[in-house]
Amino acid sequence: MTTITTPADARKILRVGIAGLGRLGRRHAEALAFSTRHVELVSACSPVDAEREHARSALGVARVYADFDAFIADPDVDAVVLVTPTSLHADQTIAALKAGKHVFVEKPLALNVPDCERVLAVAEQHPDQIAMVGFVRRFDASYQNAHAAIVAGDIGRPFLVRSQTCDQNDPDGFFVRFAPTSGGIYMDCSVHDIDLARWMLGRPKALRAFASGTIALHPGLAECNDVDNGLAIVEFEGGARAVFYASRTFAHGHETTTEVIGTAGKLLVGEHAALDRVIRSDARGVGHAVLPDFHARFEGAFTREIAAFVAACRGGAPLDLTLADAMEATRIGLAITRSLHSGQVETVA
Ligand code: NAI
């Protein structure tokens, strides 16, 4: 690991390796290779031949690894970006920290609390290394503006968050194949809304959760005890409440929307899922094109998120987003998931 402390050091380029070059990993890799400052994408890791070939030919990465242990043992890498299946996040983060690397790991940090605790304990032993979890919405300009308005007192005391993550229906059912390692709809999708709610409400302690869901279009999810539409209510200490909705089956496009209600006003982020600022009027009516997926909605935020990680590794301002936040999001997501399965109100423990 390179520790950057002097002005001369600050000009140094951060050498980054990426593990996982799937749906999202490819996007992070492109950002690192072509559009992030002060960084060089020097290595990549994937068990899939075609993905390693992609790293060589399309991204110009010289050192590619099929084996994760060899990847993190590379001494000429300062930081790693882990965009691997969720079930691997905790162990890979721990291994990378122990190998002396800064780590960016995609959300959620882990699928159980003991795994989160193990990561936090190892991170505490490596205080000079950055460990960041990819809650991308914290880097979206609209969510940042909303958060700043709340901190400035514009809506009084925020006490209720209603937040949804709704994906366009994928008839091929990518996420059905993904379900066995994703932790289910709440751990995979609502975990973003959970983190947002805690951030907007000032990190209150979560107490209880209740969930219900249904399978509207994808019966294959039943095998993993999952649903394609899920609702949840979470109660927080001090009276704050959150309501979450996640869907895999929207007909029109991707719609991530969050409403924060306070004692003196409310804020609404992301209404209408508009792709751009064009409104078309014709004989069929008035309308606009719609966002196709999460990446179209959060492309700018993904870029800023990776830039924030690189800046933190190079000695910039500490991140407001912590591993403890990620552990709380997992804790709440698990209570919601337990409630889906039990049909009962569950304690957030
Ligand atoms: P994916 O299945 O498309 O990609 C997973 C990648 O990991 C593949 O390239 C696969 O070859 C690689 N891989 C598997 N085992 C590996 C190992 N042992 N070592 C190294 N690489 C390995 O999945 P996707 O959609 O890209 O998701 C990856 C992660 O990103 C998940 O944890 C998911 O929750 C998260 N994600 C986050 C989003 C966000 O909004 N922040 C959006 C989409 C995904």
Automatic annotation (TrEMBL):
Give residue ranges for domain Gfo/Idh/MocA-like oxidoreductase N-terminal.
14-134
User: MF terms per GO, please?
Assistant: nucleotide binding; oxidoreductase activity
GO biological processes: NADPH regeneration
Please name the InterPro entries in this protein's record: Gfo/Idh/MocA-like_OxRdtase_N, GFO_IDH_MocA-like_dom, NAD(P)-bd_dom_sf
Q: Which keywords label this protein? A: Oxidoreductase
Residue span(s) of domain GFO/IDH/MocA-like oxidoreductase: 143-267
By its UniProt entry, which Pfam families does this protein fall under? GFO_IDH_MocA (PF01408), GFO_IDH_MocA_C3 (PF22725)
Looking up Gene3D superfamilies in the UniProt record yields: Dihydrodipicolinate Reductase, domain 2, NAD(P)-binding Rossmann-like Domain
Q: Name one GO cellular component term.
A: cytoplasm
Domain of life from the UniProt record: Bacteria
What residues form the membrane-spanning segments?
none
Protein family: Belongs to the Gfo/Idh/MocA family.
Q: What is this protein called?
A: Myo-inositol 2-dehydrogenase/D-chiro-inositol 1-dehydrogenase
Q: What are the leading ranks of the lineage?
A: Bacteria, Pseudomonadati, Pseudomonadota, Betaproteobacteria, Burkholderiales
